[in-house]
UniProtKB/TrEMBL annotation:
Residues 1-22, 201-238 are annotated as: Disordered. Residues 9-20, 215-238 have a biased composition (Polar residues). Transmembrane segments: none annotated. Pfam families: PRE_C2HC. Residues 201-214 have a biased composition (Low complexity). It comes from the Eukaryota. Residues 65-133 form the Pre-C2HC domain. This is Pre-C2HC domain. It comes from Cinara cedri.
Length: 238
């Protein structure tokens, strides 16, 4: 699914869809060493204003995004932007809307919303990505272009320039900047991508196993807790 053009019901000082890189002082660059398995760490100042995204289903696609935003704001929420999702192939509008709310404590209350604009709806969390995020600036994995403080590297030829400035012809083989293979850097068959994906899946399975063990451990503790000993007075002999 793809998103249509975002609208902004209210003017805000922060633009979520902006491609401007974050301040390098607020971001610790990733993969500056050979260890691609290190995790990206971003200071709180860079993430505290992250938008709260929800998915609204069953609204008719003829509904204007501006109407959706205003209706939600009338309920006390602050809307940053709204988008009507498009079908991936036909590009037709679907009965699905993405809504980004400004950070607020009350945002989770919106999941109890059952109707909007006289229509029964479902409010859900967006599906989590199953693949690893890839930066469109440096082509490394684990972070996005917005938080990248590294130099630009081309996705097609691997040289140090933005992908949009590449002059490589279609006849010239691509060159992956990650593994030096003859393919673009965003190729899912890339050796580097597969290694990172396998490492991520292994870590996820380990975490899930730890959670299961913790639950079992707590459960076993409850089951094995000694019961209070009942003391009874001996019956005297007649």
């Amino acid at each position: 699914m793809e998103e249509s053009e975002f609208i902004q019901p209210k003017t805000t000082t922060r633009i979520l869809s902006s491609g401007t890189p974050a301040d390098p002082k607020k971001c610790k660059p990733m993969f500056v060493t050979a260890n691609r398995y290190s995790s990206l760490t971003i200071d709180d100042d860079a993430t505290e204003d992250k938008a709260f995204r929800i998915v609204i289903r069953n609204l008719h696609p003829s509904t204007l995004t501006i109407e959706v935003g205003r209706a939600i704001e009338d309920l006390g929420f602050t809307v940053h932007q709204v988008a009507n999702v498009l079908h991936k192939v036909t590009k037709s509008k679907l009965l699905v809307f993405f809504v980004d709310l400004e950070p607020a404590i009350i945002n989770k209350d919106i999941f109890s919303l059952k109707s909007l604009l006289h229509t029964k709806i479902k409010v859900e969390e967006p599906h989590k990505r199953k693949d690893i995020t890839q930066c469109h600036n440096c082509q490394e994995y684990g972070h996005s272009k917005k938080y990248c403080a590294l130099s630009s590297r081309c996705v097609r030829c691997g040289k140090n320039h933005p992908s949009s400035a590449c002059t490589k012809s279609n006849e010239t083989p691509a060159s992956c900047v990650l593994c030096n293979g003859n393919h673009p850097a965003n190729y899912k068959g890339c050796k580097t991508y597969k290694e990172l994906q396998n490492h991520r899946n292994f870590s996820t399975n380990q975490n899930n196993g730890n959670k299961t063990n913790n639950v079992s451990f707590k459960f076993n503790n409850c089951e094995s807790s000694p019961r209070p000993t009942q003391t009874t007075n001996p019956i005297p002999d007649p």
